[in-house]
Each structure stands twice: as structure tokens, then as C-alpha cells.
UniProtKB/TrEMBL annotation, chains A, B:
GO cellular component: membrane; periplasmic space
Domain of life: Bacteria
Name of the gene: nosZ
Sequence ranges assigned to domain Cytochrome oxidase subunit II copper A binding in this UniProt record: 518-622
Listed name of the protein: Nitrous-oxide reductase
Organism, as annotated: Sporosarcina pasteurii
Amino acid sequence: MTTKRIISAVLGIVAGLLVAVVFFADFNQASENASGDLKSKAEKVYVPYGELDEYYMMSSGGHSGQLFVYGIPSMRKIRTVPIFTPDPATGYGYSKETKEMLGGFTWGDFHHPAISETAGDYDGEFLFANDVGNNRVAAVDLSTFTTVDIMSLPNMGGPHAGVFVTENTEYIALPTRFARPLDNKYADLDKYEEEYKGVVSMTTFDKETKKFDLAYQIVLPPWSYDLSDAGKKMSGDWIVMTTYNSEFATTNLEINASQNDRDYIVLVNWKKLEEEVAAGNYHDVNGAKMIDPRDHKGAIYAVPVAKSPHGVDVTPDGTRYIAAGKLAPMMTVFSFEKTFEAIEKEDFTDEKFGIPVLSYESVMEREVDPPGALGPLHTQFDDKGNAYNTMFISSEIVKWNIETGEVIDRTPSYFSPGHAAAAEGDTVSPDGKWLVSLNKISKDNFLSVGPSHPESMDLIDISGEKMEHIMAVPVDPEPHYAQIVHRDKIKTVTVYEKDENRENSVWKQEDARVERKGDEVHVYGIAMRSRFIFDAQSDRPDAVTVKEGDRVFFHLTNIDLDQDITHGFGINEYDLNFEVQPGQTSTLEFVADKAGVYPIYCTNFCSALHQEMSGYLLVEPK
Amino acid sequence: MTTKRIISAVLGIVAGLLVAVVFFADFNQASENASGDLKSKAEKVYVPYGELDEYYMMSSGGHSGQLFVYGIPSMRKIRTVPIFTPDPATGYGYSKETKEMLGGFTWGDFHHPAISETAGDYDGEFLFANDVGNNRVAAVDLSTFTTVDIMSLPNMGGPHAGVFVTENTEYIALPTRFARPLDNKYADLDKYEEEYKGVVSMTTFDKETKKFDLAYQIVLPPWSYDLSDAGKKMSGDWIVMTTYNSEFATTNLEINASQNDRDYIVLVNWKKLEEEVAAGNYHDVNGAKMIDPRDHKGAIYAVPVAKSPHGVDVTPDGTRYIAAGKLAPMMTVFSFEKTFEAIEKEDFTDEKFGIPVLSYESVMEREVDPPGALGPLHTQFDDKGNAYNTMFISSEIVKWNIETGEVIDRTPSYFSPGHAAAAEGDTVSPDGKWLVSLNKISKDNFLSVGPSHPESMDLIDISGEKMEHIMAVPVDPEPHYAQIVHRDKIKTVTVYEKDENRENSVWKQEDARVERKGDEVHVYGIAMRSRFIFDAQSDRPDAVTVKEGDRVFFHLTNIDLDQDITHGFGINEYDLNFEVQPGQTSTLEFVADKAGVYPIYCTNFCSALHQEMSGYLLVEPK
């Protein structure tokens, strides 16, 4: 090696070291910044003992059939509230009342929760849930976080596109996803265009009786209805729905339902249809008051939209509706003002199934197409006039200005976000504080639990100009949508009222009794710390003897009126379990079809002597 | 007011202000310290995106029947693994295989998880679960986090005191909680002492076939068996169990089972009994090989213990067993060495049901009685020779030295802790890093969800001399016990192997077919992004036509061999849903008892065209 070469080599090494030093300095700096960021993120989600989360997130549980309740910002899961699926942890689907409410079904597919609204704002009183699997709608009372009514919907094929409520909860709307023949008739798929229909259910809910009613249905072409939203303020009388499969494909929809460049948004004026129904202008179909657009003009319209849209969302001020393209890489902003003008002017380009089709150019305000952003599915809002879109394929959230279409920020989500939920995001006054991205794929984000991965959620701080990804959280399958409501709006009761006139209730130990009526045995019993009293007259008040084949009713009242003192009631080997909350009366009904001796015990840890809270069911052989 | 009085008053005010200033200065200082502590706590539990939790916590789900998997230190819930209760979110209890495994039962009461062990250390291969409700034991394969076997146990009345495994998983032991007549006979409660029995089930599990076997049972007096543990090292051949109700009370146990000052710990040498069984020295009772202590000497002993104990736990080195008093405010340390000596010397004070009762004074090493600490329930361990006890009544964790009995630290838990779980806490080598207190009452700790409160868990850092409470977390009802295992021990598979010889599997699209055998219709189908192929020969490969009354089998294979690509399969209005994981084949069996048209759809979001992944079941009317 020559001197020159040596010098070159040394210089090279020195230069390399300098580069390395600079690089490491930068790296350390970046690392310190990242570390500082992480501390700040950690503090943002940490809720110290003694404090409470600021928001409830009410998340659908998808095909679990249940509601998942989270606290935000901690992202701690607080509770699974059973809706469509039995839940032995709370006795739901085991007690007589809840078993009857489930009507023999064992699951549901809950996609879109909607909190009841007053003047377009969440009022925190009830939450509604759709069941895509078995065509039902349910209501959860948010004073007790219990399901209070479930109604089956005729003529439906999976009410995926619900539930969304009108701004004073006048209606809970559920459009169907899969077309089926009306009245559950059999018809071959060759007759799809003529015999299969899409149906929208317009249901009402009475807050006093806590019962649903099916007000009316709308029969529509056999397009697939995907998502919907209710108007607000100037658009308050309307609902909007996206459709796909305007091709009427009956097989291989992956390809065949993606042929047309445009599908439709369907607009419905629910107030006008309400008047039609009141005037008796409907047909009875399978017990439903059915509205047909071919008979009713002036209430139902269609707007062409980029192919196979997923979400359509009304802006907080009610002036626009925004479609997310799914198969088209853009969001389309439509103006309600322009829509109403086009309707007024009869600016129609076509008619389908009696439904006038409005001119796209006349009602469209803007197409927003961020470069490289693919698979927009759903739009949420903040308090500063911005929209947030989930991008399923490019795995990101895009923030943009509704007035100008300007893209303000983009942040990754992990991975493939479906919907997003913003704090008070579906109301007339979003809070602009937190956004949760509900992702469909989690890959390696969390400790592996085998082939069936958890879903994932990203908590994103949207209070600043730029979004900040704070935390990723795993979740059981499968949240599709959530609503985030401020804690001040939820007013719970923690102990049921002591109502001495309540049917089947027993409040005094000496009133606990067993009554036989033919082959029915009615036990009017008490659960209290730390014993059961079934029969005050017996030497063994916590034992009940019946005959094999008897129909047995345990009417049980929890007379412990203290917060958080739940008593369970399980019968060993009889596959039976239910619960009574403080002050609650509930009934378990079953046939004692197995002779023998079966321990009864409190299944919910209630006191220091919980283990001693037990008794026996003795079933004398025939 | 005199001048003197005025001066006094002013001085008093000044002094008061000084005190106030000093107080507030202190308060601010304390507040800043607290704030610093909170930052540090926040950082301890924050796991940034891209990193993983260090430990899995496998928690029982109580009467939910399921396993809850958490990450530690983040305390994020990763997954609900269904064991005893159907779970539509994963199709568990709907597919033919899992439905048969559940055997018609709809719930279980899962109290105590036990991870399989090799040489006294968690090996991370399987997890075992007891069902107090319906007398079963289950195994979860931790390579897939799925339940692989459930076995019903005869002669049992709620195997509460299990499951605990011996140090090489030779046995999974399950002692019963409620005495019942053997062989499910009927006997009046007046015959309790003669006819009712406590039974211990000794089950084995074959890791190759993944099946349980009931090796033998032990019949014991009708005491209630509450908790148990297996010995380690020098005590490896033994199991220990606590009892209550040595009074033989048959009613109002709250009072009647708390009369005696002492109940018993029962010690069983499982190895000796194994030899007896091998030699044919047992009676057949209801299909079980039953060992009776009246016939077998030298393997079963009783030790008196302070009244109504809950937990009994063997120290990591296997030298001692510690009973938690529940109704006596103390922990009792027993020496195995002294126990073996007493057995050797036949240092017996009594005999019950053929069981020699050892002298308390001879085998007891120490009583640990921290002042004011009430309701000890369970003991866990660290790597420095310390024990940690949950105190149900005084709501705290007490740390004390096993050798000296010295109480080292006490910290509150919120509220009423049952068990606690320490990192690797049941092994021969605990990690001494984290302790989770599993609490029974949460009161106002979290956002209210009505009368049915979440349970709560406290994460406590036990790496220092003093314990540090880090975070409180809500949880669904109701974890009773958990085990915390290091992530390095869990080896999962994320995609099932493509096994072309697997029964009913179909891997090529052209092989998808429908075969009719009498009134059985077998569909050999494929699920893939983003379509179903049931019948490659049909114009509509994603539609199946059957006749009303047919028995239908959908054998479905997911041929997407990519991580996290799950396909669901729901049939609208038919109350049916199941899933296939990547590479998995599974079967759904049902009777098509309703004529009409029923949409089939993928229930687990799988791809951008997931909504299009649908088809139809057409049921022709009879």
C-alpha cells in the first residue's frame, strides 16, 4: 500500500467516523425526541387511580353480538354489555325475562351503535343496535347498561346499513344489505330483479315503555344498502343511504357487483313518508306497512356516486353529505342545498323503480382525492370544520377541510381501518378531541394469541393541527363502529329501587316461600349477604325439594341495597346461572328433568362468606 | 375588644396564615411528587406501538366460562378465549367439532387456570381450566389459543379447588366443593354425613392426542374443598387442599360452617395412590376408579388449620405450604419436612374417615398475623423469598418474609382482593416483577355502567423493597385467579398448515362441490378473499340449493394462507355463524327446517371486498 493510498484510507476512515458521529448524534437526538414523545403519550392515556376517563366509547362487538364499553383516553375496556348473545357472566339469556327477549336466537351481528339524540346531540339515554345476522334491532338502557327490548324485522335480509337515528330519535332506520323476496317467499335467483327487494325499516322507540315499534318499511330495488346517516338541522327530515350492486349481480359479487362506475346514494324524506303512512297510503306486507316508491312521489330520490361506496355521513351543520368511495380513491361532498334545488327543479337524469335519479353534476360540490390514499370507508368530524377519513387500503387517516377540500394531515393506522369514531363525532357539535380508528387487521401488533388475531384500535389525538397517534389497543372480534360520548351525558343508577309492589319480589326474610301449583313449583326467594332464603318455614331455608319433571320457577330478589353487591345463582350440573343486582327481582324457569342432588351456589363473589352462600336443589325421582 | 385582645387575634391570624402557608407549601411539594410519580407510573405501563408486552396474563373469566388474556405491563386485554361458553365471535360452539365438545352445555364457571409445567416451571404448552358450574375440566392449546378438549367428571359437585398441576403435569387435580351422594343418587340432606361425599378427581392429559383421561378419584368426607396446590421438588409427590365445613352443616353455612376453630388441610401422596390404582386396588363408582382412605393407608393425611381457610400455596422451593386464614386473620406456614417427620413418627391426634390427623404443633412452623390485616385469601411469591397475601376484608396486599415471618410492606388494593397473580408466581422460579391483585369490588373506580359493576384488577410493581401500586383496570365478571407467564414461553402458530389429506378439506377451486347422500347435503367449499366457492360446477358457485328438511353440512376450508385473514360464515335468519382461520377446515351442520331464501355472508372483515363476499342458501319448500 502506498503512502498516498494509506492517507486516503485514513482520511476515508476519519470521514466515515465523522459521518458516523454526526449520524449517531442525530440518532440520539431523534431517540431523545421519540423518548420525550413517548413520555407525553404515556401521560395522555394514563388515568390515575381516583380519577375517571373523560369519555365512554360504545363500540359494536360485531358477530360477538355484544356491546363493548371502553373508557377514553385510557382505552381500558370497562364492560361487555350483552345484547344479542346469551352471557352467563351476567345471567343474560338465562333469566326468564332475557331468555324470552332473545327469542331462541343465540347470536347477532352488531355493526353500528347509535346513541339516542335530542336536537342532534347525544342525550345519553339509550343506545340502539342492529343485528345483521338475524334481522333485529335492540335497545340498551344507558341508565343500567342493560338490553331492554329486541324486535325482529320482517322482510329484511341483514339490516347492515343501520342503525342511525334522526335528530330527535323520531326514527331508528335500518336498511337491508341483502335483497330477499318479500314475505320470506321462495324465489329462484334467476328472478332476482323482479322478486328480490331491498327494504328499509323505519322503527320507533318509546322511551317510557322502552319498546320498539315498526312504523313502516320502504321497498326498494334489490341493490345492497351498505351504510346510512340521518340529516341534521336543514336536512333533518332526510336520511341518506349508500348502495352497491346496482348491477343486480347474483353471484361472485367481488367482480360482478363492481362493474358500474357509479352506484347510488338513496335519499328519503322520512317526514313525508310518515304523512303517507298516517294517511293509510301503504300496503301490508308480512305485518309491515310497506311504502313503494312507484306509488309515492316526492319523498325518495337517488344520487349517482363513485362505485361501491361504503359510508355516507352528514356534516355536523347538516349542509352536506359525504360519501366514502371504497373502490374509488376519493370522498365526494354533496350539497343538501343543491340537492333540494335539483329536486325542486326536477333536474333528473333517469328513474329507477319509480325513484328519480338526480344529476350528479348538479348536486355534487367537490371530489376530494388525496394522492395515494386508497379505500376510503368512513368520515368523521371535529369542531373546526374538518373531516377525517379512514383509508382501508393505504391504512391511514386523512384529515381535510370540508369547505376547501384541502388535505391538512395524514397519519398511519395499524392496519386497514374500517370506521373511525370521534368524540361526539356524529352530533351537531363534535368535541374535536379524540379519534379512534377501528382497524380490521392487527398482524404482529400485540402478543400473539394464535391464528385468530385480535382486531385493533388506534387512539389518535385530533386536538391539534396535526394528528398524533397515541396508542394501539387490541380488541375482541369485531368492532365495526363506535360512538364516543362525554361522561357527563350518561346518568346511571347503581342500585335498583326497592319496589315492594314489584311482581314476585320478596323483601322480608319471613316472606320467602315455596308455592306449588300442580306440577309448577314457584320459589319466592331472597339473596343476601351471605345466604339464600327460599323457604322461611323450612328447617333448611336454603334447600328446595321438587319432584322429577316439575317446572320450577326461582323468583329471586337481592335485598342488599348496596352498590356493587351482586348475587349470582347457579345450579350445579343443570347448566343454569343467573344474577340479581342490588334491589333487583328476576326469575329463572326450568324443568327439573334430572333426579338427584344439585348444589345451588352464589356465582358472583359477594362477601367474605361468599363461599358459604350455597344450598341444594333436591329432585326426588319419579 | 381590648388592644391586647386585638393583638392576640392578629397574632392568631398571622400564625394561622403561617401554618397555612407551610401547609400549602408542603401540599404543593407533595403534589409535585405525586405528579412525578404519576409520570413514572404512566411510563411503566405504556407499551409503544411496535413493542410488545413482556408477559401474558391468563385470567379465568369466572361464570363467563371463558379465558381472558391480558398483556402485562400494559394491562390491555388481548383476547377472550372461549372454553365453556359458545362464542359466535369465533364460531366456537357453532362448528360441529366445538359444538360436540361443549356437549349441550351453554356455560361454565371457570375459577383457576393452570399452565402446564415441566420441572415445576410453566412450559407454555397448555392451559387447564375447571368448571365449577357443570363439573368439567378443559384444556386450551396455547399454540393456537383454542380449547382442544373438555371432559365431564362424574361424582363431583363443583370442582372449585382445581385446577392445579403437578410439577411435570403428571396430574391435573380437581377437588370438589359441594358434597353430593356418589353416583348421582338421591339422598335426603338428613343423610349428609353418611351418604354425601367430597371427591377429588385426578386427571391426566396426553399432549400428543390432546385428550384428558380420568386416572382415578379419591372419596373424602363431605367437607367442602376450597383450594389446592401441588408440591414442588421435595414435596413434588404431594398435593395439598384446604377444607371448610368440617362441621357437616347442611344449611345456613354462613353461620353453621364457621363454628369450629379449625378445619383441615388434606395432604395426598398422588404417587402412592397411582401405585394403588395400578395394582387394581380401587372400586368402580360411576365409571371412575375410586380410592377410599379407609382402605388405603399411608397416602392421605389431614392437618388442622385456622378456621375456613381459602388458599393453600406451596413455596417455590417446595419446602413449605402456606394457608390463608379467611376467617382467621393470619397466614399459617407449615413445613413439609416436619409433616414428613410427623407422618414417619405417626404423630397423629385423631382420625377422620380413615384419614390420620397430624398434630398441628408438630407440623406448623409459624403463624403470621399482621396487625389489622383481615381476610387473608391467597399467597403468591417473588424471587427473593417473600410471600404476598391478599387481604379481602382490609383490602390490601401484605408482603412478608417466608423465613422470618417479618412483614415488609403493605399496600392498599381497590377493593376486596380475592387471589393475586405474580409473574411466574406458581413456578419454582418466580420473576419478582409484577403482581396483579384480582379484586371483587370496584365501587366508583371506573366510569359507571349501572348496577352491574366491572370487577377490578390492580397492577403492582413488586421489583423493589416496597410495593408500588401502578394502575387499576376494570374487567368483565369475573376473574378468580390468573397466571402470568413470560412471553418467551408461548410459541404460537399463526396459520394452520396446508394439509391436503385433511378430511373434508378442499384446496383447489375446481374441487369445490356439493354431494347429496339421501337427505344429507354435504358442501365441500372454499373461503378465500373475497368469495365463497361451494360448487365449482354451478353457474352460481356461491349459492347452494337444498330441500326443506335436508340435513346440511358445510365443510369449509380457508385457503388464504396469510396471517390474520379470517373468514366468517353466517347464514342470515338461521342463527348460524362460524369461522375458518387461514389454512383451517371446519364444518357447520344443521337442518334446513325453514323454506325460503337466506343470504350467506362473511362475518369477519377480511378484505377491501369483504362486503361482496356473500352468497345464498335457497331452501325449496317441501
